[in-house]
Amino acid sequence: MNVRPTSWTHPQVEVRPSPIGGQGVFALAQLRAGETVFIWGGQRATPEEYRAGVITSRSCSAIEENVYLGKRPSLGDLPDDFVNHSCEPNLWLVDAATVVARRDIQAGEELTLDYATFYDIDDWIVTEACACGSRICRQRVTGADWHLPELQTRYQGHFTPLLAARIARLEVGS
To answer: What residue ranges do the domains of the chain occupy?
Structure first.
């Protein structure tokens, strides 16, 4: 996979305080289903480099076995660092780095992703309870959520290729 040196962000989004938690990213204008909102960039890092802080945890995505895509801390905060989790997100992935609108998104709406679609560290747990407010909220978000059959079905075709391959191996083994 080719990696962009830095992320691209749709010009009609901004960072501001979020009711979900801390800062979030919000649409300034309507975004249509399928419209590209972010293209993640940065650099490749091994799990050891990730743990050593070579890339920031807020921008980290599992793109290949033992390879993460993330941003160097020296770049400072970028809008894609502030995309909050939702158990019923309005964004999802179409490949390892391209984030698109899952449905039409109205101006003023917070942009969210389900972290299960790109995060693979099974023992990682968000310390705070999920505050997404979704009717299907899982209450707890972990790096092992991609194992959940209902999420595998819900997001089929919208996991990073790494997680999609792992899910396919699980399906073949069952």
So the answer is: 8-173
Question: Can you tell me whether residue 157 is helix, strand or coil?
Answer: coil
- Amino acid residing at 145: D
Question: CA–CA separation, 132 vs 83, rounded Å?
Answer: 12
Q: Please give the structure tokens belonging to residue 104.
A: 């039409």
Lowest mean pLDDT among 10-24, 56-70, 156-170: 56-70
Strand 43-45 with 23-27, pairing: unpaired
What class has domain 8-173?
mainly beta
- pLDDT tens across 67-112, in order? 999 998 888 889 999 999 999 999 999 999 999 999 999 999 999 9
5 pLDDT higher than 80: yes
Sheet holding 36-39, edge to edge: 8-9, 36-39, 98-101, 91-93
